[in-house]
């Protein structure tokens, strides 16, 4: 995710988080990332992103045989904090069971990375804890 975000700067990057949802929907374990081309209108890609719905289906097919699926998405905020915007809330978070990772990229370098989950009533995001598992 970090390399993808830095490579796409000053535009927003985006991608899917591939893994498993566990603990009766309370945790997401991310095994891989699936970078996607930002399909938002060219002139707006520096502050908006869009993942085509077909990419979700492609990822599910690609990883399904390994019992993995889409557990969230990620995108970058060039020169802005790693916090969800109003646009993110209204347009980029369709499922309350997924994680939404945002990377803050300033001057081409990732400065911060935070993960969020959508409240059940879809009114706001709540930051979720991220734990890096050791191999």
Defining traits:
135 residues, alpha+beta, Cytidine Deaminase, domain 2, six-stranded mixed beta sheet, 19% helix
Report on the structure:
Helices cover 19% and strands 38% of the residues. The chain has one domain (2-128): 3-Layer(aba) Sandwich (Cytidine Deaminase, domain 2), CATH 3.40.140.10. It contains three helices and six strands, in the order αββαβαβββ.
Provide the low-confidence segments as ranges: none
CATH class: Alpha Beta
Structural class: alpha+beta
Topology as a string of helices (H) and strands (E): HEEHEHEEE
CATH fold assignment: Cytidine Deaminase, domain 2
Mean pLDDT over all positions: 90
E-strand count: 6
Shape: globular
CATH superfamily: Cytidine Deaminase, domain 2
**Main sheet record:** 6 strands, mixed
Distance between the termini: 19 Å
Chart the SSEs and their pairings.
Layout: H1 2-8, E1 14-22, E2 27-36, H2 53-64, E3 69-78, H3 86-91, E4 99-106, E5 109-118, E6 125-128
Parallel strand pairs: 3-4
Antiparallel strand pairs: 1-2, 1-3, 4-5, 5-6
């Amino acid at each position: 995710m970090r390399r993808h975000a830095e490579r796409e700067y000053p535009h927003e990057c985006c991608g899917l988080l591939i893994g498993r949802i566990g603990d009766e929907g309370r945790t997401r374990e991310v095994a891989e990332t699936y970078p996607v081309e930002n399909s938002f209108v060219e002139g707006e890609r520096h502050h908006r992103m869009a993942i085509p719905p077909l990419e979700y289906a492609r990822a599910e097919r690609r990883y399904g045989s390994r019992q993995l699926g889409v557990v969230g998405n990620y995108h970058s905020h060039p020169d802005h904090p790693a916090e969800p915007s109003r646009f993110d809330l209204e347009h980029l978070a369709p499922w309350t069971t997924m994680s939404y990772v945002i990377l803050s990229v300033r001057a081409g370098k990732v400065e911060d990375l935070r993960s969020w989950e959508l409240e059940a009533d879809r009114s706001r995001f709540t930051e979720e804890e991220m734990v890096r598992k050791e191999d």
